[in-house]
Protein backbone atom coordinates (compact mmCIF):
# COMPACT_ATOMS: atom_id res chain seq x y z
CA UNK A 1 0.00 0.00 0.00
CA UNK A 2 1.28 3.46 -0.86
CA UNK A 3 2.39 5.59 2.04
CA UNK A 4 -0.32 8.23 1.49
CA UNK A 5 -3.10 5.65 1.21
CA UNK A 6 -1.87 3.85 4.34
CA UNK A 7 -1.95 7.05 6.41
CA UNK A 8 -5.36 8.06 4.99
CA UNK A 9 -6.85 4.67 5.90
CA UNK A 10 -5.42 4.92 9.45
CA UNK A 11 -6.90 8.39 9.89
CA UNK A 12 -10.36 7.11 9.00
CA UNK A 13 -10.28 4.84 12.06
CA UNK A 14 -10.72 7.63 14.63
CA UNK A 15 -9.54 7.15 18.19
CA UNK A 16 -11.73 7.75 21.19
CA UNK A 17 -10.64 11.37 21.58
CA UNK A 18 -11.56 11.92 17.91
CA UNK A 19 -15.09 10.50 18.22
CA UNK A 20 -16.72 13.65 16.84
CA UNK A 21 -14.64 13.44 13.68
CA UNK A 22 -15.51 9.76 13.40
CA UNK A 23 -19.23 10.47 13.69
CA UNK A 24 -19.03 13.16 11.01
CA UNK A 25 -17.10 10.74 8.79
CA UNK A 26 -19.85 8.11 9.21
CA UNK A 27 -22.49 10.75 8.45
CA UNK A 28 -20.55 11.69 5.30
CA UNK A 29 -20.47 8.06 4.15
CA UNK A 30 -24.19 7.65 4.84
CA UNK A 31 -24.93 10.92 3.02
CA UNK A 32 -23.04 9.81 -0.07
CA UNK A 33 -24.76 6.40 0.03
CA UNK A 34 -28.22 7.95 0.34
CA UNK A 35 -27.54 10.42 -2.47
CA UNK A 36 -26.22 7.73 -4.83
CA UNK A 37 -29.08 5.34 -4.02
CA UNK A 38 -31.64 8.12 -4.54
CA UNK A 39 -30.18 9.00 -7.92
CA UNK A 40 -30.12 5.36 -9.04
CA UNK A 41 -33.76 4.87 -7.98
CA UNK A 42 -34.95 8.15 -9.51
CA UNK A 43 -33.23 7.48 -12.83
CA UNK A 44 -34.55 3.91 -12.85
CA UNK A 45 -38.12 5.17 -12.34
CA UNK A 46 -37.90 7.83 -15.06
CA UNK A 47 -36.29 5.32 -17.43
CA UNK A 48 -39.01 2.82 -16.57
CA UNK A 49 -41.77 5.36 -17.17
CA UNK A 50 -40.29 6.30 -20.55
CA UNK A 51 -39.76 2.67 -21.54
CA UNK A 52 -43.20 1.45 -20.48
CA UNK A 53 -45.06 4.39 -21.99
CA UNK A 54 -43.13 4.04 -25.25
CA UNK A 55 -43.64 0.27 -25.43
CA UNK A 56 -47.34 0.50 -24.65
CA UNK A 57 -47.85 3.32 -27.11
CA UNK A 58 -46.01 1.48 -29.86
CA UNK A 59 -47.84 -1.80 -29.18
CA UNK A 60 -51.24 -0.11 -28.89
CA UNK A 61 -51.08 2.27 -31.84
CA UNK A 62 -49.89 2.20 -35.42
CA UNK A 63 -46.48 3.58 -36.32
CA UNK A 64 -47.86 5.79 -39.12
CA UNK A 65 -51.39 7.06 -39.87
CA UNK A 66 -52.47 8.35 -43.30
CA UNK A 67 -55.51 10.65 -43.49
CA UNK A 68 -57.03 13.35 -45.65
CA UNK A 69 -55.87 16.93 -45.15
CA UNK A 70 -59.48 18.12 -45.05
CA UNK A 71 -60.31 15.28 -42.63
CA UNK A 72 -63.33 14.31 -44.77
CA UNK A 73 -62.46 10.63 -44.96
CA UNK A 74 -60.89 8.33 -47.55
CA UNK A 75 -63.35 6.90 -50.07
CA UNK A 76 -61.06 4.97 -52.41
CA UNK A 77 -59.36 3.29 -49.47
CA UNK A 78 -59.25 -0.24 -50.91
CA UNK A 79 -57.24 0.68 -53.99
CA UNK A 80 -55.07 3.10 -52.01
CA UNK A 81 -54.30 0.49 -49.36
CA UNK A 82 -53.41 -2.09 -51.97
CA UNK A 83 -51.01 0.36 -53.61
CA UNK A 84 -49.31 1.58 -50.43
CA UNK A 85 -48.80 -1.80 -48.77
CA UNK A 86 -46.10 -2.60 -51.32
CA UNK A 87 -43.96 0.41 -50.39
CA UNK A 88 -40.50 -0.26 -48.91
CA UNK A 89 -40.39 -0.52 -45.08
CA UNK A 90 -44.20 -1.00 -44.80
CA UNK A 91 -44.91 -4.33 -43.10
CA UNK A 92 -48.66 -4.10 -42.36
CA UNK A 93 -51.66 -1.86 -42.93
CA UNK A 94 -55.22 -1.53 -41.65
CA UNK A 95 -58.14 0.80 -42.45
CA UNK A 96 -60.13 2.36 -39.65
CA UNK A 97 -63.07 4.65 -39.02
CA UNK A 98 -62.95 6.81 -35.86
CA UNK A 99 -65.84 8.73 -34.31
CA UNK A 100 -66.64 9.89 -30.75
CA UNK A 101 -69.83 8.59 -29.16
CA UNK A 102 -71.60 8.48 -25.83
CA UNK A 103 -71.73 4.91 -24.56
CA UNK A 104 -74.35 4.15 -21.92
CA UNK A 105 -75.80 1.25 -19.97
CA UNK A 106 -78.82 2.02 -17.87
CA UNK A 107 -78.23 5.25 -15.98
CA UNK A 108 -74.44 5.06 -16.41
CA UNK A 109 -72.67 6.61 -19.38
CA UNK A 110 -69.24 7.62 -20.57
CA UNK A 111 -67.57 9.17 -23.59
CA UNK A 112 -65.79 6.79 -25.93
CA UNK A 113 -63.88 6.82 -29.18
CA UNK A 114 -65.16 3.95 -31.28
CA UNK A 115 -63.09 2.58 -34.12
CA UNK A 116 -64.50 0.48 -36.92
CA UNK A 117 -61.95 -2.14 -37.91
CA UNK A 118 -61.26 -5.27 -39.86
CA UNK A 119 -59.90 -7.42 -36.97
CA UNK A 120 -57.41 -9.41 -39.01
CA UNK A 121 -55.83 -6.23 -40.37
CA UNK A 122 -56.04 -4.30 -37.10
CA UNK A 123 -54.10 -6.93 -35.17
CA UNK A 124 -51.15 -6.50 -37.54
CA UNK A 125 -50.71 -2.80 -36.64
CA UNK A 126 -52.06 -2.59 -33.06
CA UNK A 127 -51.89 -4.92 -30.07
CA UNK A 128 -54.95 -3.73 -28.14
CA UNK A 129 -57.03 -6.72 -29.22
CA UNK A 130 -54.25 -9.02 -27.98
CA UNK A 131 -54.84 -7.88 -24.39
CA UNK A 132 -58.37 -9.18 -23.84
CA UNK A 133 -59.08 -9.86 -20.17
CA UNK A 134 -62.54 -11.27 -20.90
CA UNK A 135 -64.45 -12.45 -23.93
CA UNK A 136 -63.18 -12.78 -27.48
CA UNK A 137 -62.74 -10.62 -30.56
CA UNK A 138 -63.84 -13.42 -32.90
CA UNK A 139 -67.32 -11.89 -33.21
CA UNK A 140 -65.78 -8.80 -34.82
CA UNK A 141 -64.98 -10.79 -37.93
CA UNK A 142 -66.74 -9.36 -41.01
CA UNK A 143 -68.86 -12.52 -41.50
CA UNK A 144 -69.92 -12.86 -37.83
CA UNK A 145 -73.66 -12.92 -37.22
CA UNK A 146 -75.43 -10.30 -35.09
CA UNK A 147 -77.42 -11.28 -32.03
CA UNK A 148 -81.17 -10.68 -32.24
CA UNK A 149 -82.56 -9.06 -29.10
CA UNK A 150 -85.95 -9.69 -27.59
CA UNK A 151 -87.40 -6.66 -29.41
CA UNK A 152 -86.20 -8.06 -32.71
CA UNK A 153 -83.37 -5.53 -33.04
CA UNK A 154 -79.98 -6.77 -34.20
CA UNK A 155 -77.20 -6.03 -31.72
CA UNK A 156 -73.76 -5.95 -33.37
CA UNK A 157 -70.68 -6.90 -31.31
CA UNK A 158 -68.34 -4.43 -29.61
CA UNK A 159 -65.08 -4.69 -27.64
CA UNK A 160 -64.37 -1.98 -25.05
CA UNK A 161 -61.60 -1.04 -22.61
CA UNK A 162 -61.60 -2.31 -19.03
CA UNK A 163 -61.85 1.12 -17.37
CA UNK A 164 -64.64 2.15 -19.72
CA UNK A 165 -66.46 -1.10 -18.90
CA UNK A 166 -66.08 -0.41 -15.18
CA UNK A 167 -67.41 3.14 -15.54
CA UNK A 168 -70.66 1.92 -17.15
CA UNK A 169 -70.76 -1.38 -15.20
CA UNK A 170 -70.59 -3.49 -18.36
CA UNK A 171 -69.46 -7.10 -18.62
CA UNK A 172 -69.19 -9.61 -21.45
CA UNK A 173 -72.73 -10.19 -22.68
CA UNK A 174 -74.04 -6.80 -21.58
CA UNK A 175 -75.95 -4.59 -24.00
CA UNK A 176 -74.80 -1.00 -24.30
CA UNK A 177 -76.24 1.95 -26.19
CA UNK A 178 -74.05 4.02 -28.51
CA UNK A 179 -75.27 7.56 -29.17
CA UNK A 180 -73.62 9.11 -32.22
CA UNK A 181 -73.65 12.86 -32.93
CA UNK A 182 -73.82 11.95 -36.65
CA UNK A 183 -77.61 11.87 -36.46
CA UNK A 184 -80.60 12.34 -38.74
CA UNK A 185 -81.99 15.69 -39.79
CA UNK A 186 -85.72 15.92 -38.96
CA UNK A 187 -88.30 18.73 -38.84
CA UNK A 188 -87.48 18.94 -35.16
CA UNK A 189 -83.76 19.35 -35.77
CA UNK A 190 -80.80 17.01 -35.80
CA UNK A 191 -81.52 13.88 -33.79
CA UNK A 192 -78.59 11.73 -32.63
CA UNK A 193 -78.42 8.19 -33.94
CA UNK A 194 -78.84 5.36 -31.44
CA UNK A 195 -77.56 1.82 -31.79
CA UNK A 196 -77.44 -1.05 -29.32
CA UNK A 197 -74.29 -3.19 -29.16
CA UNK A 198 -73.47 -6.43 -27.37
CA UNK A 199 -70.19 -6.46 -25.42
CA UNK A 200 -68.24 -9.50 -26.61
CA UNK A 201 -64.82 -8.60 -25.20
CA UNK A 202 -63.03 -6.34 -22.72
CA UNK A 203 -59.37 -5.46 -23.23
CA UNK A 204 -56.85 -4.20 -20.69
CA UNK A 205 -53.64 -2.70 -22.06
CA UNK A 206 -52.53 -1.06 -18.80
CA UNK A 207 -52.54 2.31 -20.58
CA UNK A 208 -55.33 4.39 -19.09
CA UNK A 209 -56.03 6.58 -22.12
CA UNK A 210 -56.95 3.52 -24.16
CA UNK A 211 -58.60 1.43 -21.44
CA UNK A 212 -60.93 4.28 -20.46
CA UNK A 213 -61.88 5.65 -23.88
CA UNK A 214 -61.49 3.10 -26.65
CA UNK A 215 -63.88 0.61 -28.21
CA UNK A 216 -63.78 -1.52 -31.35
CA UNK A 217 -66.58 -2.61 -33.67
CA UNK A 218 -66.79 -4.00 -37.17
CA UNK A 219 -66.03 -1.55 -39.95
CA UNK A 220 -69.41 -2.04 -41.59
CA UNK A 221 -71.20 -1.39 -38.27
CA UNK A 222 -69.19 1.79 -37.73
CA UNK A 223 -70.03 3.01 -41.24
CA UNK A 224 -73.72 2.38 -40.54
CA UNK A 225 -73.63 4.04 -37.12
CA UNK A 226 -71.78 7.10 -38.39
CA UNK A 227 -73.71 7.29 -41.67
CA UNK A 228 -70.48 7.01 -43.66
CA UNK A 229 -71.01 4.29 -46.30
CA UNK A 230 -67.79 2.75 -47.63
CA UNK A 231 -65.53 5.39 -46.07
CA UNK A 232 -62.64 5.23 -43.58
CA UNK A 233 -61.05 7.95 -41.48
CA UNK A 234 -57.49 6.77 -41.92
CA UNK A 235 -55.20 3.98 -42.99
CA UNK A 236 -52.73 2.81 -40.36
CA UNK A 237 -49.32 1.34 -41.14
CA UNK A 238 -46.72 -0.64 -39.30
CA UNK A 239 -43.12 -0.13 -40.44
CA UNK A 240 -39.96 -2.17 -40.06
CA UNK A 241 -38.12 0.47 -38.01
CA UNK A 242 -40.28 2.46 -35.62
CA UNK A 243 -37.49 4.98 -34.93
CA UNK A 244 -37.50 5.93 -38.63
CA UNK A 245 -41.28 6.31 -38.69
CA UNK A 246 -41.05 10.03 -39.48
CA UNK A 247 -38.96 9.45 -42.60
CA UNK A 248 -41.10 6.52 -43.78
CA UNK A 249 -44.24 8.58 -43.14
CA UNK A 250 -43.02 11.19 -45.63
CA UNK A 251 -42.49 8.46 -48.24
CA UNK A 252 -46.03 7.16 -47.66
CA UNK A 253 -47.44 10.69 -47.92
CA UNK A 254 -45.66 11.31 -51.21
CA UNK A 255 -46.83 7.97 -52.60
CA UNK A 256 -50.44 8.68 -51.58
CA UNK A 257 -50.46 11.90 -53.57
CA UNK A 258 -51.85 15.40 -52.96
CA UNK A 259 -54.62 15.86 -50.43
CA UNK A 260 -53.14 13.41 -47.92
CA UNK A 261 -51.09 13.89 -44.77
CA UNK A 262 -49.42 11.54 -42.31
CA UNK A 263 -48.73 11.49 -38.61
CA UNK A 264 -46.48 9.10 -36.73
CA UNK A 265 -46.24 7.84 -33.17
CA UNK A 266 -43.27 10.10 -32.33
CA UNK A 267 -45.05 13.22 -33.57
CA UNK A 268 -48.27 12.35 -31.77
CA UNK A 269 -46.47 11.87 -28.45
CA UNK A 270 -43.67 14.41 -28.78
CA UNK A 271 -44.88 16.52 -25.82
CA UNK A 272 -45.14 13.46 -23.58
CA UNK A 273 -41.60 12.24 -24.23
CA UNK A 274 -40.23 15.79 -24.02
CA UNK A 275 -41.86 16.15 -20.60
CA UNK A 276 -40.37 12.81 -19.49
CA UNK A 277 -36.87 13.86 -20.61
CA UNK A 278 -37.24 17.20 -18.84
CA UNK A 279 -38.45 15.40 -15.71
CA UNK A 280 -35.42 13.13 -15.82
CA UNK A 281 -33.01 16.08 -16.04
CA UNK A 282 -34.76 18.00 -13.26
CA UNK A 283 -34.85 14.89 -11.05
CA UNK A 284 -31.15 14.30 -11.61
CA UNK A 285 -30.31 17.89 -10.66
CA UNK A 286 -32.56 18.05 -7.60
CA UNK A 287 -31.58 14.67 -6.13
CA UNK A 288 -27.96 15.32 -7.11
CA UNK A 289 -28.03 18.08 -4.50
CA UNK A 290 -28.09 15.30 -1.88
CA UNK A 291 -24.64 14.26 -3.10
CA UNK A 292 -23.51 17.89 -2.85
CA UNK A 293 -24.73 18.05 0.76
CA UNK A 294 -22.82 14.84 1.48
CA UNK A 295 -19.74 16.43 -0.10
CA UNK A 296 -20.08 19.35 2.32
CA UNK A 297 -20.04 16.82 5.16
CA UNK A 298 -16.80 15.42 3.72
CA UNK A 299 -15.36 18.95 3.62
CA UNK A 300 -16.32 19.51 7.27
CA UNK A 301 -14.96 16.12 8.35
CA UNK A 302 -11.62 16.65 6.59
CA UNK A 303 -11.32 20.22 7.88
CA UNK A 304 -11.81 18.99 11.44
CA UNK A 305 -9.38 16.15 10.77
CA UNK A 306 -6.72 18.62 9.59
CA UNK A 307 -7.22 20.70 12.76
CA UNK A 308 -7.03 17.52 14.86
CA UNK A 309 -3.95 16.19 13.09
CA UNK A 310 -1.92 19.41 12.93
CA UNK A 311 0.70 17.98 15.29
CA UNK A 312 0.92 14.73 13.29
CA UNK A 313 1.29 16.69 10.06
CA UNK A 314 4.09 18.74 11.56
CA UNK A 315 5.91 15.60 12.74
CA UNK A 316 5.57 13.96 9.34
CA UNK A 317 6.89 17.05 7.59
CA UNK A 318 9.79 17.22 10.06
CA UNK A 319 10.66 13.64 9.09
CA UNK A 320 10.88 14.65 5.44
CA UNK A 321 7.35 14.11 4.11
CA UNK A 322 6.69 16.58 1.30
CA UNK A 323 3.66 18.98 1.27
CA UNK A 324 2.41 17.26 -1.90
CA UNK A 325 2.32 13.95 -0.02
CA UNK A 326 0.38 15.56 2.84
CA UNK A 327 -2.09 16.92 0.30
CA UNK A 328 -2.50 13.45 -1.21
CA UNK A 329 -3.11 11.92 2.22
CA UNK A 330 -6.24 14.01 2.75
CA UNK A 331 -7.28 13.76 -0.88
CA UNK A 332 -7.22 9.99 -0.54
CA UNK A 333 -9.05 10.17 2.76
CA UNK A 334 -11.91 12.06 1.11
CA UNK A 335 -11.72 9.67 -1.85
CA UNK A 336 -12.04 6.67 0.47
CA UNK A 337 -15.10 8.19 2.13
CA UNK A 338 -16.64 8.80 -1.28
CA UNK A 339 -15.79 5.31 -2.58
CA UNK A 340 -17.24 3.55 0.46
CA UNK A 341 -20.42 5.65 0.36
CA UNK A 342 -20.78 5.21 -3.41
CA UNK A 343 -20.42 1.41 -3.21
CA UNK A 344 -23.04 1.15 -0.46
CA UNK A 345 -25.30 3.55 -2.38
CA UNK A 346 -25.05 1.54 -5.60
CA UNK A 347 -25.84 -1.70 -3.79
CA UNK A 348 -28.78 -0.12 -1.97
CA UNK A 349 -30.13 1.63 -5.07
CA UNK A 350 -30.02 -1.40 -7.37
CA UNK A 351 -31.44 -3.61 -4.60
CA UNK A 352 -34.45 -1.31 -4.15
CA UNK A 353 -34.90 -1.19 -7.93
CA UNK A 354 -34.94 -4.99 -8.05
CA UNK A 355 -37.49 -5.16 -5.23
CA UNK A 356 -39.66 -2.51 -6.92
CA UNK A 357 -39.51 -4.28 -10.27
CA UNK A 358 -40.30 -7.64 -8.67
CA UNK A 359 -43.25 -6.62 -6.50
CA UNK A 360 -44.67 -3.80 -8.71
CA UNK A 361 -45.93 -0.98 -6.51
CA UNK A 362 -49.39 0.13 -7.75
CA UNK A 363 -50.07 3.59 -9.20
CA UNK A 364 -53.22 5.49 -10.04
CA UNK A 365 -53.67 4.91 -13.77
CA UNK A 366 -55.86 8.02 -14.03
CA UNK A 367 -52.93 10.20 -12.98
CA UNK A 368 -49.87 8.40 -14.36
CA UNK A 369 -51.43 6.58 -17.38
CA UNK A 370 -49.91 3.27 -16.20
CA UNK A 371 -51.05 1.15 -13.28
CA UNK A 372 -47.75 0.31 -11.56
CA UNK A 373 -44.42 1.96 -10.78
CA UNK A 374 -41.85 0.77 -13.34
CA UNK A 375 -38.14 0.40 -12.58
CA UNK A 376 -35.56 0.19 -15.37
CA UNK A 377 -32.07 0.49 -13.84
CA UNK A 378 -29.26 0.83 -16.37
CA UNK A 379 -25.54 0.21 -16.02
CA UNK A 380 -24.81 3.52 -17.75
CA UNK A 381 -26.73 5.36 -15.03
CA UNK A 382 -24.59 3.67 -12.38
CA UNK A 383 -21.43 4.83 -14.18
CA UNK A 384 -22.79 8.38 -14.46
CA UNK A 385 -23.83 8.54 -10.80
CA UNK A 386 -20.49 7.07 -9.67
CA UNK A 387 -18.58 9.68 -11.67
CA UNK A 388 -20.74 12.46 -10.22
CA UNK A 389 -20.33 11.22 -6.65
CA UNK A 390 -16.55 10.77 -6.85
CA UNK A 391 -16.06 14.05 -8.74
CA UNK A 392 -18.07 16.18 -6.30
CA UNK A 393 -16.44 14.50 -3.30
CA UNK A 394 -12.95 15.09 -4.68
CA UNK A 395 -13.77 18.76 -5.19
CA UNK A 396 -14.79 18.93 -1.53
CA UNK A 397 -11.35 17.64 -0.46
CA UNK A 398 -9.37 20.33 -2.28
CA UNK A 399 -9.60 23.00 0.42
CA UNK A 400 -8.80 20.86 3.52
CA UNK A 401 -5.98 19.00 1.72
CA UNK A 402 -4.44 22.28 0.59
CA UNK A 403 -4.73 23.63 4.15
CA UNK A 404 -2.94 20.55 5.48
CA UNK A 405 -0.11 21.01 2.96
CA UNK A 406 0.40 24.62 4.15
CA UNK A 407 1.01 23.65 7.80
CA UNK A 408 4.34 25.00 9.08
CA UNK A 409 6.05 22.40 11.30
CA UNK A 410 7.83 24.95 13.51
CA UNK A 411 4.61 26.87 14.21
CA UNK A 412 2.62 23.69 14.84
CA UNK A 413 5.20 22.28 17.31
CA UNK A 414 6.10 25.51 19.05
CA UNK A 415 3.82 24.93 22.05
CA UNK A 416 4.07 21.12 22.16
What does this structure look like?
This is FtsX-like permease family protein. With 416 residues, the protein is α+β, with helices and mostly antiparallel strands. The protein folds into two domains: 3-57 and 272-413, no CATH class; 71-258, no CATH class. Helix content is 53%, strand content 21%. The chain contains 15 helices and twelve strands. The strands form two sheets. The chain has a six-stranded mixed β-barrel. Strands 5-6 form a two-stranded antiparallel ribbon. β5 (147-148) and β6 form a beta hairpin. α10 crosses α12, α10 (270-308) packs parallel to α14 and α12 packs antiparallel against α14. It is elongated. The mean pLDDT is 82.
- Unreliable segments of 5+ consecutive residues: none
Structural class per helix/strand content? alpha+beta
How helical, in percent, are the residues? 40-55%
- Write the H/E string, N to C: HHEHEEHEEEEHEEHEHEHEHHHHHHH
Provide the gyration radius in Å: 33 Å
Number of helices: 15
Strand order of the largest sheet: 2-3-10-7-9-8
The domain count comes to: 2
Shape: elongated
- Please give the number of β-strands: 12
- Assembly state (oligomeric): single chain
Mean pLDDT: 82
* Beta-strand content bin: 15-25%
> What is the straight-line distance between the termini?
31 Å
The largest sheet is: 6 strands, mixed, barrel
Main location: membrane
GO biological process, one term: lipoprotein localization to outer membrane
Organism: Silvibacterium dinghuense
Keywords: Cell membrane, Membrane, Transmembrane, Transmembrane helix
Amino acid sequence: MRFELFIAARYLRAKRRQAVVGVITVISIVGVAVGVASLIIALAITNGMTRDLRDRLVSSTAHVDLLRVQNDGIRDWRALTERLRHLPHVTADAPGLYEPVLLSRGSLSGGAMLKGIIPGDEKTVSGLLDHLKAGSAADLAPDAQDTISVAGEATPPIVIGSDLADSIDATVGSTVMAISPQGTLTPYGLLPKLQRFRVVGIFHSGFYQYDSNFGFLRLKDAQTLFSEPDLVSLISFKVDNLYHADRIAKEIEQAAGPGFMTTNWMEQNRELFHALRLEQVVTFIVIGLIVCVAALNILIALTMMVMEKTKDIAVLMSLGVQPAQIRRIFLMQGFLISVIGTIFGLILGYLICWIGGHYRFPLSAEVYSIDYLPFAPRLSDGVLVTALSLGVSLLATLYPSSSAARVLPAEALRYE
